[in-house]
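User: We ran a pulldown and think these components assemble together. Before we commit to crystallization trials, I'd like a predicted model of the whole complex to look at. Sequences follow.
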Amino acid sequence: MNLSTLRPLFRPLGSPQFRTPNLLHRSAQTTPRPTNAPSPTSPFSTTTRLQKRSKGAKNTTDPRITQIRYHLQHPLTPRPLRLSRLRSLRHWTIHRAWLLFLRKRRWAEERDLERQYESMRAACEHLRLLDDQGMRVSDTEGGGQGPDAGRLGTRGREVGRLYRGAMLKRGVWGSVPVEYARTQTDFPGREGWNVGWTRQV
Amino acid sequence: MPSVKPSFWQINACVRCVRQPASVHGAPVRLLSSSSTAREELQTQPPPPPPVPAPAATASAPNDSNAATAENPEYMKKWGTLDPSSVVFKRDERRLLRREGLQPVGSRRRRALLRRSANTPDIPFEQLPYQCFQEARKILLEDRQEKLKQIETQTLRLKNLIAQDPAVSGGQAAKEARMRSMRNYINELVILADINDPVVKKKFEDGQGDMNKPIYRHLASLKWRKYKRLVLEQRISQMNIVPDLLPALDLAADIDLGFGRKNIPPGEFVDSEMSESMPRLNVQCFEAGEKLVSVVVVDADVPVPEQDGFTYRCQFIASNILISPTQTSIPLIRIDQDDNKITDPAAKRIVLPWQAPLAQRGAPYHRLAVIVLEQKDAKALNVLDVKRTRRHGFILRSFVDKHQLKPLTATLFRTQWDDNMAGVMERAGMESMINVELKRKRLEPLPHKRRTERMR
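Assistant: Here's a predicted model for the assembly, 657 residues in total across the polymer chains.
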């Protein structure tokens, strides 16, 4: 902001306020003063105060006051721009293009997530129908779906064993998902952790 | 004495003072104003003095001065062509005034703009050299190409589906459902292809959109639905047209009503003399294709004093009127005139002629609903059949069911007793109604309830 607008313009040098209070000045006064009259007080600040201009309209307010009020009143939202017709059409075009760009990017991200999800689902499905020889079996021989999802298929325990193990999602420490602690292996063991292992002496 | 070229600063004349002395003969001209300054200037202002020195002036001065008044002197010729509609500099404006005696046309800013646009070629809006704008246009054009490709594939699929055997598609109903949804999708794509085009938007806003094209119909429909339709719906519901005359009314077309030159907003009171003649309607529908419509005007508040209630009366029916997105006007008076020329009564379009809306003194206002009904499959109604409908006690719901009509849109106006109503009644042949004043039946006041009873 241009601070020169706030700088005072009219500071007369000969004004009484300009004169600094002086003890010598006071002691030079010989005439006795009545006790009722208040003693002349010196202004607190030595900065010269603005005088009224002799000429000019008396109705004008100090521009500093208007500036302060204007800036104190400033709302959060700026006042609306007024654009000409063609300018506003160009603005509209750019806005539509930007929104289209964002939409395309959003859809691409969603498609990517969907692709990842589908690939995970296909992997789990394959695992569900995997028997102990590593061959994929038909749907009826693998359990895990239909009206009674907990039931095993016709081939029994071996089909989908690794799937059932992978679907155990109990927490490790509180609610930390077990996948964070489980390392990926090609041939996970059947027993897992042998609690009763002791060192062979 | 060498001639002094008169400077422009010295000349303070108004146009009239300049123009008149520019006559060929240089004859003194009578001025309208008798102020001395004007006269002085007229006298001092010479037909431009000859630049020839004095000795030669005696012989050649008369010729020269004559020549000078007839055509401009040398220095004036050097000014070039001055066109009142394209002078821009103050100097040129003064010269124009001086030489031709003409004022420039329009404001200086306008002249400058026109001159600039005449010198530089006018760039069409979509080629304006703003980088961000052009980049945005590029993106939108790419999107448009994608949409066009999609439209192509979808139309091909639709064609194949139509050609498919219903047994393969899973039954006739499933096939039709699929066809319907495919058509809807193609329509959506067609609109999406053009919706981002600023030229289309500009054309529509200027009112130059061709209503035969789906994108302009779509934009017009959006604009209508944003405000005008809401107002119309509000008026119709607050005047209770909907439960009284029709069970439901889904407004599907924009309608404007006017009597004579005046356009009437929905629900406004219309002077009886104005409504004595037929109104003019403008119905803008937003679906492609032509429709045949019927217009029915019903008075919903005809008082029946014997039964202490109200009944309906049909004021007007017109049928088989052709409407399309580009043909929106229904000038009923002109249709009536055309009908008078047609001899075959079955080909006439006005079925029940217009009866002036009447309202007796003391009665509350009458609501007159103007309802536009779509005829089924754009089939013409049998006019002679419809002519037999009774006016008094006319039930619109039965009429609609009987002739298989579908309400397209509606509007309404109101009428009440005013100064011209007596004259209208006389001309309509209902003199018996003029001196009748309806009054409300005085009800016995209820017995005064004791204070404690009221507070329970």
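Chain A has four helices and no strands. That may be worth checking against your pulldown data before setting up trials.

User: Thanks, that helps.
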